[in-house]
Design goal:
It comes from Acinetobacter marinus. Keywords: Signal. This is Peptidase M15. Strands 1-2-4-3-5 form a 5-stranded mixed beta sheet. It has helices at about 5-30, 40-65, 65-80, 85-90, 120-130, 145-150, 180-200; strands at about 135-140, 165-170, 200-205, 210-215, 220. By secondary structure, it is an alpha+beta fold. The protein has one domain. The protein is built from 7 helices and 5 strands; from the N terminus they run αααααβαβαβββ.
């Protein structure tokens, strides 16, 4: 083979080998998703299994209750609210994460306390109607003594008498961090300062965009249940 042709052959062979190596590396990177993106499918599957387990536990609790009483409770709230929460939202205490406290994660208030939660729920509806809050999920409503202890609630918590509602903002840019959604927080605090005294509005401000609302007295507090820790009073 002439020298010129030999050189061309060697160059062609070298290029072919190099191209094969590059393609193999790219294929290996593509085949290993952990090197590029998290496994979203696995995460979604875990969440779905957790939701299914929770719904199963809710159904078991529900079957053990007085069915007529549950129906009457929902009807009572529907008479006073434009958008009454579901029975699941009213009964589930999201604060409970300890397995030993699982028996107390679902409960509704006794009949004589049903009226107590109407004003706090109406107040949340008003905040939403004014555009102060948008999407939220209820974290806790009524809590019995055991559930309140499991939730590390205050000794004199208004949840014990069905006077309070805890809720958390969702679809927020900072909902998964310790930092509050400052725009929404500012609006809620402004509302509390302007309207809170007349409404006897109690406002608790916590991390992860969680709030407590009751209508049992004009006051505010933060993570340690002291007024000094309220995010509404901090600069």
């Amino acid at each position: 083979m002439p020298i010129k042709d030999t050189v061309k052959y060697l160059l062609f062979s070298a290029c072919t080998i190099l191209l094969t190596i590059v393609c193999a590396c790219e294929k290996q990177d593509t085949a290993d998703p952990s090197r590029k993106t998290p496994n979203i499918q696995t995460s979604n599957t875990v969440t779905q299994l957790q939701d299914q387990r929770l719904q199963h536990e809710f159904q078991l609790w529900k079957e053990q209750q007085n069915q007529q009483l549950l129906i009457e409770y929902q009807r009572y709230l529907a008479q006073h609210l434009q958008h009454p929460p579901s029975l699941f939202e009213l009964s589930y205490n999201r604060h409970i994460s300890n397995a030993q406290c699982t028996p107390y994660q679902f409960a509704i208030a006794p009949r004589h306390q049903w009226e107590n939660v109407i004003k706090p729920l109406q107040l949340i509806e008003r905040l939403q109607a004014l555009g102060i809050i948008h999407h939220y999920k209820i974290v806790s409503v009524y809590r019995g003594a055991k559930a309140n202890q499991c939730s590390r609630g205050a000794t004199g918590s208004k949840h014990l008498s069905n006077h309070a509602v805890d809720f958390q903002l969702v679809a927020s840019t900072s909902q998964n961090s310790n930092q509050p959604d400052t725009a929404v927080l500012q609006k809620i605090c402004q509302f509390w300062k302007k309207e809170g005294r007349a409404l006897k509005m109690g406002l608790g401000t916590y991390q992860h965009n969680k709030f407590h609302i009751d209508t049992s007295g004009y006051r505010t507090w933060g993570q340690n249940y002291k007024s000094a820790s309220s995010l509404c009073l901090k600069r």
